[in-house]
Amino acid sequence: MKQTDDAGGAPTMPLPEIDDRAIAAHVPRLRRYATALVGNRHDADDLVQDCVEKALANRHALRDPSRLGGWLLSILHNLHVSGVRGRRRRGAEIPVEELADDLALSAQPSDRGAVRDFVRAFARLSEEHRTILLLTGLEGLSYREVAEVLEVPIGTVMSRLARARERLRVLLDGGTEQVVRRIK
């Protein structure tokens, strides 16, 4: 099927179709990021499934196949944010099964205290701070890639990351944040 450009009907090349295998190749990365976002494998798998379904249904919208990974992470992130908003409206649910995937329980006995402290401190971070730390630290994305996934400027990524790291450091040290006065 030939497509026409917006300027006047001259035929252009059809957009390349993203094949199922290309999307499937990103599932391990999506699952890792989703697990870190939601905290358990069951909900992460549900989130990844929703992401893949949405990607397959809308694959025609991706104009540059080289951006598939970032596009999928964006879909996953947006689905997660929508889910968080929905849960806030409904209230919190904590199934007992989540204890089986507790990160602190999977650590060596000698390291469990540090892991528990980290998990607790990380959980106390805002959603915005957790997301930025996961994308840069766990997924290893560059600032530019994070900016594309979150659809924010690179400067916003850098400032959020700096604030997230500082907040995590303060929480891990058990201290309180120093209040910085803003001068107008």
Continuous helix count: 8
Radius of gyration over all CA atoms, rounded: 20 Å
Instruction: Tell me about the largest β-sheet.
Output: 2 strands, antiparallel
Shape: globular
Beta-strand segment tally = 2
Whole-Å distance between the termini? 57 Å
The fraction of residues assigned to DSSP E strands is under 5%
Order of helices and strands: EEHHHHHHHH
Mean pLDDT: 80
Low-confidence stretches at least 5 residues in length (pLDDT < 50)?
Answer: none
Class derived from helix and strand content: mainly alpha
Strand order of the largest sheet: 1-2
How would you explain this protein's 3D organization?
- With 184 residues, the chain is mostly helical.
- The protein is built from eight helices and two strands.
- The model has no long low-confidence stretch (mean pLDDT 80).
- Strands 1-2 form a two-stranded antiparallel sheet.
- The chain is globular, with a radius of gyration of 20 Å.
- Helix 2 (27-38) crosses helix 3 (41-57) and helix 4 (68-90) crosses helix 7.
